[in-house]
Amino acid sequence: MIILNVDKQKGIGFLYLNRTQVHNALDGEMIDEFRKNLLLLKRDPHVRVVIIASKSDKAFSTGVDLSILNRFENTIKAREFALQLEGLMEDIFDFPGPTISLVNGYALGGGFGIALSTDIIVLSRDAKIGFPAVRIGAVLPAGCTYRLISRVGLGRAKELLLTGRILSGEEAFNLGLGEFLEDSDKLMDRGIEIAEEILKGSDFALSMQKDIANALWKNIVGLMTYQSAENFAFLTTTPDWKQRIEEKLKEMGK
Fold first, then answer.
1. What is the DSSP string of the chain?
2. At what angle do helices 28-43 and 75-93 cross, to 10 degrees?
3. Which of 54, 62, 96, 117 has the fewest CB atoms inside 10 Å of its own CB, making it the most exposed?
């Protein structure tokens, strides 16, 4: 579900989301595998920059796999899953070296939360980005919510979160949800080009500069992570949740 590749000569680690049969939807197993591969890259002395991309041109990630959302045994399991997803985003956000995400196709909810946790986002013109959690009776993870606010401001973030509407790659770029906008067939080239520019810097300085830039949002997310998980767990017990999830799965033919 996650393909790991390291270009030792260039100092770049590549992580590819490869659960393409379900558009890289996130379940517990995929999240665990993602986190384990990040740890491998963290420990690899050859890796100085990480690029996260998808093996599918249809989706970066459509967020949480809806088929698991109506199968939680209790609120404890629901809370554990929410914290697991928050943990993945924190692992990316706290990665010691610079990180770059290449976003093509659908990137929804926590799926785009992965990109928001990276340092630099390259958007495809074909990207389709949205935060439709409220439409299925759920809430976006705290990390994703606050990193969205940091990029587009509180008012625009609320509009995107409350409507759940889908943005084109160009609109998302114009709102500040990416640093670069590219044709889909040039995403990887641009990602490597950015990585090579970053690699001209000192590893120690890059890591320290990143920590300084991340400090404020790290503290805010840390304060709200558990409350967000509690909210998610509560919502899984409501009749509205069950009805909306079942309707969405039926719509998807599952």
1. -EEEEEETTTTEEEEEE--GGGTT-B-HHHHHHHHHHHHHHHH-TT-SEEEEEES-SSEEE-SB-GGGTT--SSHHHHHHHHHHHHHHHHHHHT-SS-EEEEE-SEEETHHHHHHHTSSEEEEETT-EEE--GGGGT----HHHHHHHHHHH-HHHHHHHHHH-PEEEHHHHHHHTS-SEEE-GGGHHHHHHHHHHHHTTS-HHHHHHHHHHHHHHHHHHHHHHHHHHHHHHHHHTTSHHHHHHHHHHHHHTT-
2. 30
3. 96
Supply the pTM of this predicted model.
0.96
Structure tokens, 96: 């010691």
Tell me the CA end-to-end span of the chain in Å, nearest whole number. 21
Query: Residue 121: what residue type?
Result: I
* Domains present along the chain, CATH in parentheses: 2-198 (3.90.226.10)
Each residue's pLDDT tens digit in the chain (254 positions)?
899 999 999 999 999 999 999 999 999 999 999 999 999 999 999 999 999 999 999 999 999 999 998 889 899 999 999 999 999 999 999 999 999 999 999 999 999 999 999 999 999 999 999 999 999 999 999 999 999 999 999 999 999 999 999 999 999 999 999 999 999 999 999 999 999 999 999 999 999 999 999 998 888 888 899 999 999 999 999 989 889 998 888 887 76
